[in-house]
Amino acid sequence: MTLNQKIENWLSAHKYASTRAQRPFVTLSYAQSWDGSITSRAGVALTLSGSEATRLTHQLRSLHDGILVGIGTVLSDDPQLTVREWSGANPQPIVLDSHLRMPPSARLCQHVDKHCWVLTGLAEGKALGNHVDIITLASDDEGRVDLCAALSLLWERGIKMLMVEGGGQVITAFLKAQLVDALVLTVAPTLVGGYKGINNLGITCKSRLPQIRPLNSQMLGDDLIMWGDLNYQQQAVL
Ligand SMILES: NC(=O)c1ccc[n+]([C@@H]2O[C@H](COP(=O)([O-])OP(=O)(O)OC[C@H]3O[C@@H](n4cnc5c(N)ncnc54)[C@H](OP(=O)(O)O)[C@@H]3O)[C@@H](O)[C@H]2O)c1
User: Fold this and answer.
1) Model-level pTM greater than 0.90?
2) What is the pLDDT of residues 129-163, one digit of tens each?
3) Most CB atoms closer than 10 Å: which of 27, 50, 66, 94?
């Protein structure tokens, strides 16, 4: 069985076995260097994956109902978030953008078959064209889009499997909120010494760190693919 088939089977099992109510199953997937960098510095686009790992990313997109990134990634990478190197439907593109910094010229604002959903904390809209739905949600304590409110809305709109692609702030926020169910990580054979994918999770005790179990790994071209389920340690009862 190929790596692509293994990962598809593993995700499909989650799709049908997931018992979580009222929010999508969340798969976190991104590429990093061996030192954990996702780019050289925030705001700079740096391609780390080889061609086969890129195809795997497109396959993963095709297996999810929605794909979510932060506005930082839109501003630096101007991604399309479509399935181009695999066969399958495009997932629903979703952007976390508390202050509507999305430029109308972004490629996501010209999406051909699905209107991009821009989740914001602002009540007053901004013109982003006919291919964008601006959705106002509650903000968290830091004035950012509240992730639980976002996932609840996505669930109501039919997003049962959600892929989160980055960048660093969004990855960290989802992990900190314990909202990631599965991880598919591409590790490229390079050292960058740059901007990390995961930053401070606010956990100092080893026994409370999220664990990836069971952990699977396999080479794909020059890249190492690691995947598994996220397990969160129980908080100690005080
Ligand atoms: N290697 C990879 O696989 C990969 C993947 C993706 C991105 N990247 C790289 O990552 C970099 C971008 O990362 P980044 O950390 O600067 O930006 P990011 O995580 O893409 O977006 C962060 C922004 O999202 C908004 N946001 C809204 N609600 C949020 C919430 N609840 N939690 C967190 N953020 C929320 C915030 O801006 P507002 O407060 O204005 O809403 C925040 O500044 C780029 O250089 C890109 O190339 C790499």
Assistant:
1) yes
2) 889 999 999 999 999 999 999 999 999 999 999 99
3) 94
Whose Cα sits closest to atom 46 in ligand 1? 73
User: In the beta sheet, which residues pair with residue 223?
Assistant: 220
Which CATH superfamily hosts domain 3-231? Answer: Dihydrofolate Reductase, subunit A (3.40.430.10)
Q: Are 38 and 187 in contact (CB under 8 A)?
A: no
Distance CA 144, CA 139 (A): 5
User: What does the pLDDT average to over 159-172?
Assistant: 97
Pocket test for ligand 1, best of 29, 30, 39 (most atoms within 8 A of CB): 39
Counting every residue, how long is the chain?
238
Q: How remote is the CA of residue 69 from the centroid of ligand 1, in Å?
A: 7
Q: Which amino acid is at 233?
A: Q
Using one digit for the tens of pLDDT, what is the confidence trace for 193-217? 999 999 999 998 988 899 999 999 9
- Ligand 1: residues with CB < 6 A are 30-31, 38-39, 42-45, 48, 69-73, 76-77, 96-99, 101, 140, 144-145, 147, 165-170, 173
Give me the residues paired with residue 111 across strands: none
Strands (E), the chain: 25-33, 37-39, 66-70, 92-96, 116-120, 132-136, 161-166, 182-188, 195-196, 211-220, 223-231
